[in-house]
Amino acid sequence: MLRDILEEVALTRYEIGKTALDERVMAAMAKVPRERFVGAYDRHQAFVNGPLPIGYGQTISQPYIVALMTDLLEPRPDSIVLEVGTGSGYQSAVLAEVVQQVYSIEIIGALARAADERLRELGYGNVTVRHGDGYQGWPEHAPFDGIIVTAAAPHIPPPLVEQLKPGGRLVIPVGEPGGIQQLMLVEKRGDASVSSRSILMVSFVPLTRSRP
Questions:
Q1: Would you name the residues annotated as active-site residues?
Q2: What's the start-to-end Cα distance of the chain, in Å?
Q3: In the chain, at which end, N or C, are there fewer CB atoms within 10 A of the end residue's CB?
Q4: Any residues with CB less than 8 A from the CB of 130 and at least 6 apart, and which?
């Protein structure tokens, strides 16, 4: 799996603007047991460099994309990070290896409960999972050093930008289901101004919202 990630980095180096990912991120990818985050029928494919279904129309992301999105946050050991879209908890676990605290929101209750239990079993005490609509972020724990969204939104949610610290980064796929989606990097500068740029084309399940 790690070799596949390195090959993907080499193939996309001009798009992502780098020839290697952070060593701490790669160490996290090596350490987190991905097979614990997929269904029993898919465990033989756990280390294939591609997404896998986890039920409820959701997926566990391709390892390269998990590594890249984590790297783009430029995580530090003292970072406080928000994740929108817990899913199986795999991205949460990778983040937990490289930051101080992860707050993760999942809109599907069954997935939130299962991920919370799985992460606790694996000893990730620095991940807090909540069932809810991640579009609004988690104001009680804001501002965040980084925010990562694991589902495609039609636009960048303003509440998430507001909850970034100055100097913070938001990594989010933006686009319509079945259409062109771009992995976007949003940065809030020290003066609170915001810049964004596209990193590369991706394909994610859509970001689900609560019904009014």
A1: 61
A2: 41
A3: C
A4: 103, 104, 105, 106, 112, 138
CATH of 2-202, one of 2.40.50.140, 3.30.2090.10, 3.40.50.150, 3.40.640.10: 3.40.50.150
- Tokens 């090959």 belong to 7
| Predicted TM-score (pTM) of this structure | 0.93
| 83-112 per-position pLDDT tens digit | 999 999 999 999 999 999 999 999 999 999
- Residue 160's pLDDT band, with cuts at 50, 70 and 90, is very high
Q: Which residue has the tokens 């988690």?
A: 138
What's the sign of the alpha-carbon dihedral 73, 64, 55, 91? negative
With CA atoms as reference, report the closest residue to 144 among 164, 158, 170, 116: 164
d(CA 164, CA 188): 7
Structure tokens at 208: 């689900």
